[in-house]
Amino acid sequence: MYPIDVTITKIVRESPSTKTFFFDRSFEEALPGQFVMVWVRGTDEIPMTLSYKNAVTVQKVGDATAKMFELREGDHLGIRGPFGKGFTLPGPDERILIVAGGVGAAAIVMLAEYALSKDASVTTILGARNVGEMLFVYRLTPCKGLHLTTDDGSAHRCGFVTDVLVEIDSSAFDRIYICGPEMMMKCVFGILEKQGSLEKAEFSLHRYFKCGIGVCGACCMDSEGLRVCKDGPVFNGMQLIGSEFGKYMRGPGGNKKLF
Ligand SMILES: Cc1cc2nc3c(=O)[nH]c(=O)nc-3n(C[C@H](O)[C@H](O)[C@H](O)COP(=O)(O)OP(=O)(O)OC[C@H]3O[C@@H](n4cnc5c(N)ncnc54)[C@H](O)[C@@H]3O)c2cc1C
User: Fold this and answer.
1) Average pLDDT for the chain
2) All domains of the chain, ordered by start, with CATH?
3) Please, what's the b/e burial string for 109-123 (b: 16 or more CB within 10 A of its CB; e: otherwise)?
4) Which cofactor does it need (predicted)?
5) Engineered SS bond to 86: which of 22, 33, 36, 162, CB 3.0-4.6 Å?
6) Half-sphere CA count of 252, side-chain side, radius 13 A
7) Which of 39, 58, 65, 79 to mutate to test ligand 1, by most ligand atoms within 8 A of the CB atom?
8) Cα of 251 to ligand 1 centre, how many Å?
């Protein structure tokens, strides 16, 4: 698939490290949790989850994301996708729990809005380094329960999302969705495993990959060889048992990077 050329129509600064880029093409077929490959011409092509049907929300971490931050309205990007396995959609009247941290909120907010539109009962635990980095609170306000945490205590509850999670009975939910830094997700995994709730949990993984379509092998995970781009990026908790999840990931040269 060749990239589709899109024009940036609007840029919203969500936080000091994050911007949302809206474009003139809406990917109506995209399911919550699916991603697109964003071609930043002259720099790189990188995976991003759609935070709206026509937008990605980007945290500046390296070359390609820094280049995106220099772009203006009217500039162009190339988009391939949507790709990958998204979240299992919740049914009407289901009780769902969302646990999101940092830019992981961008990957999960469309799912929350879908669930709310189906009258599911949505409880969200949302964490960030500090209050300025907390994303999309305004889109999550309609949730039945919204628990906010900041690492530095600059607002809301001081602590991690897991501090709230241990106080919640996860068995009361039909589905649990998680996206955030991998160490955060690993801690959530441990709590849900202890509570016997892994089977109904889905984790969205952010790993380095090149092709996005299951060919290059850059994102294969030990020990089963599951490809994050094709078999994921959303995985059921049971699929991650005994895998490299939370232990290490591979960088561009295939070298292991320990968490
Ligand atoms: C399915 C998927 C969805 C994603 N969705 C979003 C999103 O919605 N918003 C967002 O801001 N980011 C998202 N990411 C992460 C994003 O792809 C990386 O931050 C981006 O590729 C970094 O590119 P760079 O050139 O700016 O940084 P680089 O210079 O390549 O790297 C900077 C740092 O980020 C790490 N890194 C690089 N690529 C990835 C990656 N793919 N996953 C995790 N860490 C990486 C590197 O190890 C390094 O430490 C997603 C990743 C995946 C796999």
Assistant:
1) 95
2) 4-83 (2.40.30.10), 95-258 (3.40.50.80)
3) bbbbbbbbeeebbbb
4) [2Fe-2S] cluster
5) 33
6) 3
7) 65
8) 11
Q: Counting atoms of ligand 1 from 1, which one is nearest the CA of 68?
A: 26
Q: CA-to-CA distance for 134 and 138, rounded, in angstroms?
A: 10
CB atoms closer than 10 angstroms to residue 88? 16
User: Is the distance from the beta carbon of residue 46 to the nearest atom of ligand 1 less than 6 Å?
Assistant: yes
What pLDDT does 259 receive?
87
User: Ligand 1 within 6 A of 207 CB?
Assistant: yes
The residue whose C-alpha atom lies closest to atom 24 belonging to ligand 1 is 62
Please give the DSSP secondary-structure letter assigned to residue 224: T
Rama region for 108: left / alpha / beta (φ>0; ψ in -120 to 50; rest):
alpha
Residue 160 Cα to chain centre, angstroms? 17
CA separation, residue 171 to residues 20, 67, 118, 157, 198 (Å): 35, 44, 21, 23, 10
CA–centroid distance, 215 to ligand 1, in Å, is 19
Tell me the per-residue pLDDT of 195-241, one tens digit each, with 9 for 90 and over: 999 999 999 999 998 999 999 999 999 999 999 999 999 999 999 99
Short-list 159, 65, 172, CA closest to 123 = 172
Q: Which residue has the tokens 């999302």?
A: 161
- What pLDDT, in 10s, does the model give residues 103-149? 999 999 999 999 999 999 999 999 999 999 999 999 999 999 999 99
CA distance 12 to 60: 14
Encode pLDDT of 166-182 as tens digits. 999 999 999 999 999 99
